[in-house]
Structure formats: C-alpha cells, structure tokens
Amino acid sequence: MNKDILRLYLIASSSSFKNPLKDLETAFKAGVTCFQLREKGADIKTGQELLDFALDVKALCSRYNTAFIINDDVLLAEAADADGIHIGQDDMNPDMLPEYFNNKIIGLSVGNLTELKSSSLSRVAYLGIGPVFSTLSKEDAGEAIGTEGLRKLVNHTKLPTAAIGGITEENYKRCLDSGADGICVISAITGADNIEQTVTALLQ
User: Which annotated residues bind 2-[(2R,5Z)-2-carboxy-4-methylthiazol-5(2H)-ylidene]ethyl phosphate (predicted)?
Assistant: First the structure.
C-alpha cells in the first residue's frame, strides 16, 4: 500500500455534513487522500439507501483519486466495491475477512502495545493509532495516548500508520513529527466553516 494514501484521512457518516455529497466533493477536490464511510451514530442510513449513498461516494472518490474505505461492514464494502475496509479491536479478526479483501486495503485500529502485539497483522495494510488526543467524536475511543504513545507504537511496527483522535489544525504536525504517515480527522473537517480552507491547512 502507498502510505501517501493516509496523509489526510477523513472519517464521516452520511449525516456528518449538511450537504454530504456536495461537502465531500469539496473536501476531496481540496486534497483529502482517503475517506472512510463510518455509518454509525444518529440519523444513519441503512439498506438500499446506504448502498446508494456509498456508491455515490465511491464515484466521487474515483473522480478525485481518493481512496474509499468502509468501516466494519463487509457486505457494504463488497457491494460498493470499496478500496478497503477498516476494523476495530472489537470487530472481526482481520484473518476472518473473506477472500474478496485479499487485494483490498485492510486497516486496523490499535491503541496500545498490548493490542498491537496481540493483533493478527498478516493481512493488515495500515494501522490507525489512537486516540492521540482527547476526542468527543467517538464515544468508545478510549484514553488519549499522547504523541509519546503514538511514537512508541509507530516505532514498533513497519506498517504505514495514521494518527487519530482529537486532531486539529493546531496539533496535527505533532502527529506527523512523531512518525505517523498521516492523520485521521472527523470534526476538524465535518465541523469546519470553510472545508476547502481547512483541508488545505491540514495538508501544509
């Protein structure tokens, strides 16, 4: 996997934006390198409505050369022909993913050395490490590990890494300086007054 895909990794649901397809296109056009559809929380889509939305997002990602990842939904990832899937520690073991994903991007969340050492990584393409800073975007994110915790995990793996958790324009460079190949953001972009300006700033 090309680690540059992780440089600016946006995670959002269909309800994260006022005008989701329009706002996502703005973000992709401005330079977001990877997008994860994480359809969890309030006002989420299901069934055919979710698949239709995922297919629209896939088309946008293809247009702007943005990698398209589905969070923890094997059937949706297959149906939408996503570029990959991201799973957490409490989701399925990466080894249990169908053969369909052998040529796809498989991402795994890790928050500490114990999780890293106990995870099966033979099929994993990259690690999402965090939460680095305190975050309100994900209720079960766990305790912040700080940039020292991030650096420690980065130094214990040869896999590409993306920092996640409470990352903003003010602190993102600390994650890159700690060795992460990229940053995952949610509210920094979904809550931005000017999406294009924010994306540009996070790519500096």
Answer: 135-137, 166, 186-187
